[in-house]
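Before a colleague's protein record goes any further, I have to sign it off. Would you go through it and say whether the fold makes sense for this chain? Take the sequence as given and treat only the tokens as open to question. The record follows directly below this note.
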Amino acid sequence: MTGTDDPAGRPAARELAAELRAPLPDGLDRLDDEALHRLMRDLRAGKARRVADIDAAIDASLALLPRHFRPAVRRVLGL
């Protein structure tokens, strides 16, 4: 990439910046499109794992409550 290339003009860079909801951190502009796509794929996979872990933790926590309290607690928590 030359000094005149704008990383924000590259589709992969724009997509990653949108996923991050922020401008690309320094250094990421030096990655090629394939590396940016791999990074984005790994970032999305990590987010999906985090959501699954949080859901499992919520379910495990609710399992500690008596069964008849669970619907009310879910409503209070907005679940």
Remarks:
- The mean pLDDT is 86.
- DSSP finds three helices and no strands in the chain.
